[in-house]
């Protein structure tokens, strides 16, 4: 059996001390075939996107429908609607399309907005379009950890934006995907914890993504995130564009999440096995 490094043990202790009992694994897919792999690997949320169109690139409505038709009822479906310009009409129409196609979550990439006010206006229209169609659909305001590089809104402002717009959650991802695009290269644990805590204070879902690996699960768990999103790490050859989602890689993430959950439960019961 491989021994864990002191860093891994420290991160697991952080996960336990956070008191978290659950985190959902979101796996981004581009097709029905990949969706099945994600489901067989025990993903909690199957996220339909098109990485060829960007970090939060939108896929076709027909693909969202196909995925919705084949996943079991206990697996939720989300859909990205693009790295959007500051065009509330365009954004709200795209969001409605995703909801009509069957998405339980609609993820809105706030790329073109420059201020919190612009983001709130856009998100408010998106929420109105989605909720008028289906009040149970959830809308997620998504921003980018590398905001300084790509000149967009600081994602740490998103919890307040989402709250004012009456959205359901806030997410941080990375816009430019390359070998240096890891979430933690741009934002510190302190900043991410503040983001998560503020989202929770507003009763919002807090989601984190950005070139995450299995080794990051305890760290994300310790930060208190409700959802962690992955693609590259679960694709063949770790290629988010040309690779395909592999159930074994998804399963490894799911097992790591369960390990953190069990560690938290043992801690709650004084170290006893339950």
Polypeptide structure, described:
- With about 270 residues, the chain is of the alpha/beta class.
- The chain has a single domain (about 5-270), classed as Aldolase class I (TIM Barrel, Alpha-Beta Barrel), CATH 3.20.20.
- It has ten helices and eight strands.
- The chain has helices at about 5-20, 30-40, 60-70, 90-100, 115-135, 145-150, 160-165, 190-200, 215-225, 245-270; strands at about 25-30, 45-50, 75-85, 105-110, 140-145, 170-175, 205-210, 225-230.
- It has an eight-stranded parallel β-barrel, surrounded by seven helices.
- Helix 4 links the parallel strand 3 and strand 4.
- The radius of gyration is 18 Å and the shape is globular.
- The two termini are about 20 Å apart.
Q: How are the SSEs ordered, and which strands pair?
A:
Blueprint: H1 6-18, E1 24-29, H2 32-40, E2 45-48, H3 61-70, E3 76-84, H4 88-100, E4 105-110, H5 116-133, E5 138-144, H6 147-150, H7 158-165, E6 169-173, H8 189-201, E7 205-209, H9 217-223, E8 227-230, H10 247-268
Parallel strand pairs: 1-2, 1-8, 2-3, 3-4, 4-5, 5-6, 6-7, 7-8
Helix pairs in contact: 1-9, 1-10, 4-5, 5-7, 7-8
């Amino acid at each position: 059996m491989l021994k864990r490094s002191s860093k891994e043990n420290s991160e697991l202790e952080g996960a336990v001390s956070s008191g978290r009992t659950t985190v959902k694994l979101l796996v981004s897919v581009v097709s029905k075939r990949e969706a099945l792999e994600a489901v067989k690997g025990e993903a909690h949320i199957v996220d339909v996107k098109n990485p060829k169109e960007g970090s939060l690139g939108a896929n076709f409505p027909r693909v969202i429908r196909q995925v919705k038709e084949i996943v079991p009822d206990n697996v939720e479906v989300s859909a990205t609607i693009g790295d959007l310009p500051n065009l509330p009409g365009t954004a709200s129409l795209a969001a409605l399309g995703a909801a009509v196609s069957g998405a339980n979550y609609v993820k809105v990439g706030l790329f073109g907005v420059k201020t919190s006010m612009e983001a709130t206006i856009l998100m408010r229209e998106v929420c109105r379009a989605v909720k008028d169609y289906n009040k149970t659909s959830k809308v997620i305001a998504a921003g980018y950890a590398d905001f300084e590089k790509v000149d967009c809104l600081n994602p740490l402002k998103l919890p307040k934006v989402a709250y004012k717009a009456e959205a359901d959650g806030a997410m941080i991802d990375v816009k430019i995907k390359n070998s240096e695009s890891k979430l933690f290269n741009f934002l510190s644990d302190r900043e991410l914890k503040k983001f998560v805590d503020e989202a929770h204070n507003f009763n919002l879902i807090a989601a984190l993504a950005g070139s995450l690996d299995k080794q990051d699960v305890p760290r994300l768990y310790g930060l208190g995130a409700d959802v962690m999103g992955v693609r590259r790490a679960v694709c063949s050859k770790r290629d988010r564009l040309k690779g395909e989602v592999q159930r074994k890689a998804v399963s490894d993430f799911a097992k790591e999440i369960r390990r953190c959950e069990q560690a938290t439960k043992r801690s709650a019961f004084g170290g006893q096995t339950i």
